Task: inverse folding
């Protein structure tokens, strides 16, 4: 049963989360949002929000020289960008104040299943205590993005209230039926970590989007040693994609960023997004010269709300004891703020993409699409549209192709870190599209690209080789120089750290192909990670957060492909041509390879 202390802690956290929004609120709006949110939490209202709209959007054909074909709008030379919304939009988005939609609709039994459906697929199954159970797959919806500090604060407050209500429901259930048996002690003992609360969390993140959803996606790649199983399973839902912006809100962003005449540069624009992610959504379009392009459009208010979003997430995590103490949440949040700020700057991403295009121009097996500058801005990025098979679909192809793609992915990872010292750190499988015709991998999405200092890369290469060679003393020395160890660790921590390094170095230990299909690296690292989490004395260096995300993504991709990769040969080729020492300050080009 939940204790009064825990309830008080959650209420205190909720009050802190709502504080910023309340201080900015207009009383009328606050009362309206509070009443609707409270009724949702209590289960008094169910299902989707609706309103009666007797007005039908009017289209003046003399003002709009375009024709609609489904979601695709075709433009003529005289067209403007002031495109009317679809008729269904009024029903899907009845209230301009998106904050009232932040609390998940409750049903009488306390679940929030209105936005989820059962999927009998192993790709959406959660493994808890060794049992594979069917999880939920979220049905994407079209909702306005909460773009003001107040609407986003209300969203977090609604989430906190929903979690508190769910905790009380679960506590009452346990009083009546007893505590469930589970090997996952945290799940068994904490009524907060219920399936309904996990769904509430995932649903709220998908509705909020922005930094909140991005943090959820980052956490979703962790394992049960860091994140409890029910929350981990729910966070997996957020990787399926966010809600979509309604058409009128999307037009407002395009008008503000590209000018009201943006459609004059296009032959057509598809309002159905190809993808909807944490920071923005991507649309297909065709320019006047017939070029197919991908237009990435940032959600309004996302860039300005990074600081407050992360602070609100931190408060929720702190007051619900969701994250273990040795995760060093303050350090993780600081790094997340910096990374998200870079990702929200599409002008910086355009520069990153151009830089990668230059670096990889003469490298066989890779292609980076070009940027369309006159359709790009700080919040809109337009690039050449490229096609290909995502990594998880390459896993269905023949062995020769899987081995080739696995080798190229690992080659690219080593090249980025040790040759360019400039890495695209987002391991999302959809960022790597394999073109079977040209046997080339099309690379997209460079918002998470960053540089690494020469001294860090020097020592990291020494440590990787030491891990591959099972050289304990060098692993310890380099780990201390890099900041992974303080020198005062216990024998338990030191041994776990060394063994984890050896496990990661295993693919590079021997010449010949390493079979990622028969490896148990992830399980071994998970077991050792749980020990290190309990005993470590210092957070990892700042560079490690993004770097290890990318390295683990490369390993997981090779495991997914069941690829056989000559890892040691790739590493030694880099090591034997590497120049240790002071950084010359020059940006490397393809001639350095």
Result:
């Amino acid at each position: 049963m939940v204790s009064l202390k825990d309830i008080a802690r959650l209420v205190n956290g909720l009050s802190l989360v709502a504080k910023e929004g309340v201080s900015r609120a207009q009383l009328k709006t606050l009362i309206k949002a509070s009443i609707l949110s409270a009724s949702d939490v209590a289960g008094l209202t169910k299902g989707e929000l609706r309103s009666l709209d007797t007005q039908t959007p009017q289209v003046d054909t003399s003002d709009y020289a375009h024709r609609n074909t489904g979601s695709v709008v075709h433009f003529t030379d005289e067209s403007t960008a002031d495109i009317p919304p679809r008729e269904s939009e009024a029903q899907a988005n009845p209230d301009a104040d998106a904050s009232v939609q932040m609390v998940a609709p409750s049903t009488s039994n306390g679940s929030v299943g209105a936005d989820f459906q059962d999927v009998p697929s192993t790709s959406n199954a959660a493994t808890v205590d060794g049992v594979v159970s069917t999880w939920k797959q979220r049905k994407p919806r079209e909702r306005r993005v909460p773009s003001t500090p107040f609407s986003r604060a209300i969203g977090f407050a609604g989430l906190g209230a929903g979690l508190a209500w769910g905790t009380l429901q679960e506590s009452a259930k346990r009083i009546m039926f007893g505590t469930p048996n589970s090997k996952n002690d945290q799940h068994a003992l904490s009524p907060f970590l219920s399936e309904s609360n996990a769904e509430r969390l995932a649903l709220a993140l998908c509705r909020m989007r922005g930094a909140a959803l991005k943090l959820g996606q980052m956490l979703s790649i962790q394992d049960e040693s860091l994140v409890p199983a029910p929350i981990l399973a729910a966070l997996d839902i957020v990787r399926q994609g966010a809600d979509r912006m309604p058409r009128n809100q999307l037009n407002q962003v395009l008008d503000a960023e590209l000018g009201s005449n943006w459609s004059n540069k296009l032959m057509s624009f598809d309002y159905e997004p190809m993808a909807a992610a944490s920071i923005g959504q991507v649309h297909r379009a065709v320019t006047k010269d017939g070029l197919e392009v991908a237009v990435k459009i940032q959600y309004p208010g996302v860039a300005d709300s990074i600081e407050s979003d992360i602070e609100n997430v931190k408060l929720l995590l702190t007051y619900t004891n969701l994250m273990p103490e040795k995760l060093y949440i303050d350090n993780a949040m600081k790094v997340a703020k910096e990374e998200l700020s870079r990702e929200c700057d599409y002008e910086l991403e355009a520069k990153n993409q151009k830089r990668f295009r230059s670096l990889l121009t003469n490298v066989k097996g890779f292609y980076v699409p070009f940027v369309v500058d006159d359709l790009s801005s700080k919040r809109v990025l337009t690039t050449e549209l490229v096609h290909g098979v995502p990594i998880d679909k390459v896993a269905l192809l023949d062995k020769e192709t899987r081995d080739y793609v696995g080798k190229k992915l690992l080659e690219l990872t080593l090249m980025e870190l040790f040759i360019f010292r400039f890495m695209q750190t987002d391991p999302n499988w959809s960022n790597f599209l394999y073109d079977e015709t040209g046997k080339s991998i099309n690379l997209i999405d460079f918002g998470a690209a960053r540089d690494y200092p020469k001294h860090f890369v020097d020592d990291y290469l020494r440590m990787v080789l030491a891990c591959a060679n099972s050289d304990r003393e060098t692993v310890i020395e380099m780990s201390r120089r890099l900041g992974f160890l303080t020198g005062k660790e216990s024998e338990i921590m030191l041994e776990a750290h060394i063994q984890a390094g050896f496990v990661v170095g295993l693919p590079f230990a021997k010449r010949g192909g390493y079979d990622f299909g028969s490896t148990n690296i992830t399980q071994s690292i998970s077991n050792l990670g749980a020990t290190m989490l309990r005993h470590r004395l210092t957070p990892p260096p700042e560079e490690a957060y993004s770097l290890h995300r990318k390295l683990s993504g490369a390993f997981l991709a090779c495991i997914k492909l069941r690829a056989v990769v000559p890892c040691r040969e790739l590493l030694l080729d880099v090591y034997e041509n590497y120049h240790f020492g002071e950084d010359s300050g020059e940006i490397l080009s393809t001639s350095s390879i």
